[in-house]
Specification:
heterotrimer; A alpha+beta (630); B alpha+beta (91); C alpha+beta (337); A: 630 residues; Aldehyde Ferredoxin Oxidoreductase,  A, domain 1; Aldehyde Ferredoxin Oxidoreductase Protein, subunit A, domain 2; Aldehyde Ferredoxin Oxidoreductase Protein, subunit A, domain 3; 3 domains; globular; B: 91 residues; alpha+beta; five-stranded mixed β-sheet; 3 helices; 5 strands; 32% strand
């Protein structure tokens, strides 16, 4: 049985720690991980709750495959109401923290209330204690982890912690484990800081006993074989996501100078290939992963010689290079390193900085506004200085520390159209105009402007027959086309839900399309002994999507919020963007198709009462009806 | 006999596998993409050709046009530049 | 003796003498009527001439290309100077117990560095009786030949001995650190095919490749304890995350195992076939002296306090099959990957 069947509920106000049972019915219905978190979030954190108040709750959720030998089974979701967006907060990280929680005997941890003094939570086999952490206050992420391990005299303790950015109230501060594994988005670190919780440490010495060991062993061996023979295997081991710098640049949709164009002339100097050739020491991987797609690098020359760390992945690398016009890979890696140490989300940070740089370029802000910081494109020193200022909420950085929406509000109404966000969450390092499916996915993502809710990589396959077979339109297999994308996004959203709920890596499940719903049901039956079916899993994925949609609907989200920043809708990509030149995003037809595929109301973008009840979400349907939403 | 030269630029996986950034090939007549890949295979051996077709976009950029994705049958003109890049997939 | 042959003779002698670092009499064939002389016992002398070690010089039109420094030859090889010390040809003296002798094929298996000579994987020479035969078109480097020479009589003879390491050793690395040419010595059967030899692999670790994923810990705990429980595994990855260090800690089947020597309770022993270290839990007193002695920190004490040491899964380790980066493998160090 590779569920633990237990949740740990900790109240930091009263100090109470309770172990709750998780029923089989619950687990069959929401699988685990993100699914489990979202069920709780809807039930326990209503709209009236302020995200930084003691009434907000932090959920750490792992799934039935977490901690098993399934490739990439090291994931955890950390969710709460988001202080950055004011709506659904959810983040996901790899590394080794999630499995340790399973070995300690828990599928979920719920943290409520607020401690009077800074503390950290220590979870051990079957139980937990709240320990004082004043000595950890002010420590950066790396130092916090090492200090906790030292204090507990156990290098195998896994630590999820916040850094200075969270302590200083930066709204997009994340929760970090294994130094650089970031549950970064939507400000979950800020929630922890509001609870005076510096870290969660876990040490589990138990094990998970698969229900049918021989079957599980056989299935895992077959999956390993499948992975090693997969066309994606080599690229991911050799380059991971860093190959996207060149790949997107060639396609003409690499976020460059805050999306003013899709091609960066300095791409080679900051590419994954260059990094691998010059500075990569070896591949690194998450727990139990057959495709170690991370890397450890050390800079051997340049201004930042000596800098070494695990990472970066694409978003960080591009965020502090092409997005801000910097072509010095050392500076880009330094930027990522600072965000890791201070505990901040690289996407939100790079958006806030590049937003400011575009305003500076256009004269909407001046040297006086920036406190003397020259925000010309490519000025890496200013970029790094801004990261520090944001962390310490000093100078101009203070203006940017609450996210790009708030920054635009503070800098004047004419700046709002330059804020690249959806529903308050800043968007990634690819230009949506070159990726229509991703554009739709980002527009409808339930946590805000996010590409990891959907990851519709089918649109890169350029296989028209498969497009017709799977999504009813040949165009669905082409990134610059529109038809079929609504159905593509729906499909991949559910694959992402599955991955996040089993809590395993999306690289395997979504991008490499390994472990179909049918195979997942088979594996879960063998692992847990519970009656999972293909249909049931599919329905659970749909159910979780609807719970999330209901949650943000409750917070006021409608069709009008499923949109993209103005630039992507109306300004065509410039001529140098090769095949993507001239593209904009025609969102509305894709939205129509998407809502139809989901069975949601076309005008409001909301689920229908009947639809919710068909998924067994009667209570949510009743709640929404009470609020006049369905 | 006019020689047709084609420059090939390697990106992504193929660049790391071949440990080369670019190559120049000469042909007697305008080659198809497939023939260029055969030339790569002949020069580098190993799994070069297999990797090229297996997973990589093959981009073409002539002397004048912007980059276009092409398939194996496309014929390349003299002094064209063929880039072999990684597929864009999730990240 | 023609001048050309003489030059060839001299060339070879000079090269070989240079390598052997000592005086030696150049023995030539009966061409020109020079008679072999020296310290060979009568039987060996008879066999040397019987085997006609230098038939090539009898053939008209034979050409030797001698390079005075490197001294490589095509065709048949001069071995005369090597018959100085009969130990290198112990088969001539028919040592005790030697009844069977095999022919060998020495194959260039892999070139790990940059070889200055035209060695190509697949090049080989054969050893038949006392003759070394280099096929036309193939080359041997004399420096490599010199260093692997002692192995030839050892691989040619078949003696049943306890703890005989020779049957498990097939590969030699050439002595040039720039070249690192790996030679494989195949023992040949009557049909001149390589005999399938016994292998005695051990756990090999390359920490520079370890990605730190700990899938090996899971494979071990699943195979041996039926659960996903890395804490129980008999292989553990030691990490230092800030420096990016991931070091697999696992038993390496030391020949002269310090743990076995250190155990005061006699709880440790070697499995006779796989040579894995076995723990008798009933005798183990949890004193941890074995861990102290172990140069690889590869002994783990579980909840029951008893020493846990990798037992190689009875010869088919699960962890090495799981590792996707080749940080842990089960084999011999020289093996081609």
């Amino acid at each position: 049985m590779s569920y633990c069947g237990k949740a740990l509920r900790v109240n930091l106000t009263s100090g109470s720690i309770n172990v709750e049972d998780l029923s089989e019915e619950l687990l069959l219905g929401c699988i685990g991980g993100r699914g489990l978190n979202m069920v709780r979030l809807y039930d326990e954190v209503p709209p009236e709750v302020d995200a930084l108040s003691p009434e907000n709750k932090l959920f750490l959720g792992v799934g039935p495959l977490t901690g098993t030998a399934f490739p990439g089974s090291g994931r955890i979701n950390i969710s709460a109401k988001s202080p950055q967006t004011g709506k659904l907060g959810d983040s996901n990280a790899g590394g080794f923290f999630g499995p340790e929680l399973k070995f300690a005997g828990f599928d979920q941890v719920i943290i409520e209330g607020q401690a009077t003094e800074m503390c950290y939570l220590l979870i051990k086999d079957g139980g937990a204690e709240i320990r004082p952490a004043q000595h950890l206050r002010g420590l950066e992420v790396f130092a916090t982890q090492e200090k906790v391990r030292e204090e507990l005299a156990d290098p195998k303790v896994q630590v999820a912690c916040i850094g200075l950015a969270a302590e200083n109230g930066v709204k997009y501060a994340g929760v970090f484990c294994n130094l650089v594994r970031a549950a970064a988005r939507t400000g979950m670190g800020a929630v922890m800081a509001s609870k005076n919780l510096k870290a969660v440490a876990v040490r589990g010495t138990g094990g998970l006993v698969p229900h049918d060991r021989l079957k599980v062993e056989a299935m895992l061996a077959a999956i390993d074989q499948q992975i090693r023979g997969h066309a994606e295997f080599q690229p991911r081991v050799l380059l991971g996501t860093t190959r996207l710098v060149h790949a997107l640049n060639e396609a003409g949709c690499l976020a460059t100078r805050h999306f003013q164009t899709g091609r960066f002339e300095g791409a080679e100097a900051v590419s994954g290939e260059y990094l691998a050739e010059k500075y990569k020491k070896k591949s690194k991987g998450c727990f139990s992963c057959t495709i170690p797609c991370s890397r450890f690098f050390e800079l051997t020359d340049g201004e930042y010689a000596g800098l070494k760390s695990e990472g970066p992945e694409f978003e960080g690398l591009a965020g502090f290079s092409s997005r801000v016009g910097v072509s010095d890979i050392g500076a880009a890696l330094k930027g990522v390193d600072l965000c890791n140490r201070y505990g901040m989300d690289v996407i939100s940070t790079s958006e806030c900085i590049s937003f400011a740089m575009e305003l500076y370029q256009r004269g909407l802000i001046t040297l006086e506004d920036t406190g003397g910081l020259d925000l010309s494109w490519g000025n890496s020193e200013s970029v790094l200085e801004l990261i520090r200022q944001i962390t310490y909420r000093q100078g101009f950085g203070d203006l940017l520390a609450d996210g790009v929406v708030k920054a635009a509000e503070r800098l004047g109404a004419d700046t709002a159209k330059y804020a690249m966000h959806v529903k308050g969450l800043e968007i990634f390092q690819a230009d949506p105009r070159g990726l229509k499916g991703y554009a739709l996915g980002v527009a409808v993502a339930t946590r805000g402007g996010d590409h990891l809710r959907a990851e519709p990589s089918f649109e890169f396959t350029e296989n028209p027959q498969e497009g017709i077979r799977r999504f009813g339109a040949a165009e669905s297999a082409f990134r610059l086309e529109y038809k079929g994308k609504g159905r593509v996004v729906k499909f991949y959203e559910e694959r992402c839900v599955l991955a996040d709920s089993l809590n395993v890596c999306k690289n395997t499940l979504v991008n490499m399309e390994i472990l179909s719903f049918a195979e997942a049901a088979e594996l879960l039956r063998a692992d847990t002994g519970l009656a999972f079916t293909e249909e049931g899993l599919q329905k659970s994925a749909e159910r979780i999507m609807n719970i999330e949609r209901a949650y943000i609907a409750r917070e006021g989200v409608r069709r009008r919020d499923d949109t993209l920043p103005q630039r992507f809708l109306t300004e065509p990509l410039p001529a140098e963007c090769g095949p993507s030149a001239g593209s904009v995003v025609e969102l509305e037809p894709m939205l129509d198709e998407y809502y139809a595929a989901r069975g949601w109301d076309k005008a409001t973008g909301l689920p229908t009462r009947k639809g919710l009840e068909a998924l067994g979400l009667d209570k949510i349907a009743a709640d929404l009806a009470k609020r006049g939403l369905v | 006999m006019a020689m047709v030269t084609v420059e090939v630029e390697y990106l992504g996986v193929i660049r790391l596998l071949l440990k080369k950034k670019s190559d120049t090939f000469s042909f007697d007549a305008e080659p198809s993409v497939e023939e260029v890949v055969a030339a790569i295979d002949a020069r580098h051996g190993g799994q070069a050709a297999q990797e090229c077709f297996r997973q990589l976009f093959i981009l073409y950029r002539g002397g004048h046009g912007p980059g276009q994705v092409v398939d194996r049958q496309v014929i390349l003109a003299d002094r064209s530049l063929l880039k072999i890049a990684s597929l864009v997939t999730g990240g | 003796m023609t001048k050309r042959v003489q030059r060839a003779n001299e060339g070879v002698s000079l090269a070989l003498l240079g390598m052997w670092n000592g005086p030696g009499r150049c023995r030539t064939s009966r061409v020109g009527g020079v008679v072999a002389a020296g310290s060979l016992p009568p039987l060996a002398r008879k066999q040397a001439s019987d085997h006609a070690i230098f038939p090539v010089l009898d053939k008209p039109g034979w050409e030797a290309q001698a390079f005075s420094q490197s001294g490589w030859h095509r065709g048949y090889l001069y071995l005369s100077s090597l018959i100085q010390d009969k130990r290198f040809f112990c088969f001539y003296s028919q040592g005790e117990g030697v009844t069977e002798m095999y022919n060998l094929r020495v194959v260039v298996e892999e070139i790990r560095g940059f070889c200055d000579l035209p060695m190509v994987p697949g090049d080989y020479f054969e050893v038949q009786g006392g003759k070394i035969i280099v096929p036309p078109g193939k080359h041997i480097c004399l420096w490599a030949l010199q260093s692997l020479m002692p192995m030839l009589p050892l691989k040619q003879r078949k003696i049943d001995e306890e703890n005989d390491w020779v049957p498990y050793t097939k590969r030699i690395c050439c002595p040039d650190p720039n070249g690192m040419v790996i030679y494989r010595i195949d023992v040949l059967d009557e049909e001149n095919k390589a005999v399938e030899e016994e292998v005695r692999p051990r756990m090999l670790v390359d920490a520079d490749k370890c990605s730190g994923c700990r899938a090996c810990e899971l494979a071990c705990s699943l195979a041996n304890f039926g659960q996903f429980a890395p804490d129980k595994a008999l292989i553990q990855i030691a990490k230092q995350e800030t420096a990016g260090i991931d070091a697999p800690l696992v038993c390496r089947q030391c020949g002269n195992a310090p743990c076995i020597a250190a155990c005061p309770a006699g709880a440790l022993s070697k499995e006779p076939v796989t040579k894995a270290v076995l723990v008798d839990e009933e005798r183990c007193i949890s004193c941890r002296l074995c861990l102290k002695a172990c140069p690889f920190d590869a002994i783990f004490f579980g909840k029951n306090g008893k020493a846990g040491i990798c037992h190689l899964c009875h010869g088919n380790p699960s962890c090495t099959r799981k590792c996707s980066v080749g940080a842990i493998t089960f084999g011999r160090k020289g093996d081609v990957r």
